[in-house]
Amino acid sequence: MVKVNVSGCASFVKDAEYKLYTEKALEAFDVLAGEQGAGNDFLGWKHLPSETPESLITECEAIRDSWKAKGIDLVVVIGIGGSYLGARCAIEALSHGFAKQLSRKDAPEVVFAGCNLSEEYMAELMDLVAERNVGCVVISKSGTTTEPAIAFRIVKEYIEKHYKDASERIVAVTDARKGALKTLSTQEGYRTFVVPDNVGGRFSVLTPVGLIPILLAGFDVRAMLKGAEEMEKSLAERSENNPAVVYAAMRNLLYSEYGKKIEILVTYNPKFQYLGEWWKQLYGESEGKDGKGIFPASVNNTADLHSMGQFIQEGERVMFETVVNIEKSNRNVVIGTDEQNLDQLNYLAGQHVEHCGAMAQLGTKLAHIDGGVPQMEVSIEKIDAFNLGGLFYFFEFACGVSAYTLGVNPFNQPGVEAYKKNMFALLGKPGYEELGAALRERL
Ligand code: PA5
User: Which of 285, 287, 321, 396 is catalytic?
Assistant: First the structure.
């Protein structure tokens, strides 16, 4: 399960300060556990792993099986932010790195839309759609978010034009009662799944928002929920050694007392690139408010050591790192001997590539600590559905503890409305005329 190691911060902080911030984090833990804090009507995610009924998974499997019977080989998943990043993260983490290029395919290909407003992206997506047998999962809790709504209008029009069984090829994940997508689904007879009222977008990966795309992509969501459930149990204990408390205490200490305003989530496997994206939304949207918050950034090493490494080593000393450490590789590749040894790598002959990765990780850790960058490690045994479920739950729970330690409501996001209002006004949406005129004067 998830382990947190803060020894890479020891030389930067004083024991007494860490003790004080552990006490603060434990108070925050009590607020989260007691469900009495700000935003406490959005705590449904806490019990998802232990309370998700088996019937939900079998309903999702029924869609997978009926789409398989139709020969569907491309699933377009439409969503943005919390209605997108968790599924993408899991699918990228669990997929074969070259699944697209390999001919063996035991599940449909999952692609994403509605997460940008690029016309070119949409046009190219439709080129792909035209060549394949298509199903669509549209995900929007509110049912009114512009980006997915536009993508869905385009994909839906295509599906209706090209398939007689159009309504059987569309699944909606949305609010139980309200919103445009709910209304449309009822009218058209789409299979619908509910985003629970008490679960916010960025905490929704273990609801149908994440589970359906992940399952359709061929992955074991039962194992994912099992891993999350074990984490749920182990994080329930009030202890200064609780990994969520340790993580929350140290990051708040580094931020509040040492001016470490940026946290970089560091991964060492390309499959975890989107873990960084998911984590950035979770922490950025939960903590960045009221003029406070650690700015979440991410790098994927060793690639980014060749781009961001210089700054992290010697740039402004405002950051700390949280390294996601994977203890065991799922695959083995050994480096061979070369007679000429022109690349001078024979000293590595017989070694696993993973060994080189581990030494790069260790060398980077020591170099960054020497360069003034404190480092924490969040470790999992290996990349699989079980461990990923545990990691999702760990980061969600730790986020709640950390945001309460910081003194903000982890579960709202009032700031994301500002751009939306301006966009609506500039697009000429009815009701936004006055703001539109005021904005155009400024341009
Ligand atoms: O975390 C959040 O609340 C947001 O990122 C939302 O998930 C995102 O804006 C999409 O919203 P919706 O699911 O309502 O379309």
Answer: 285
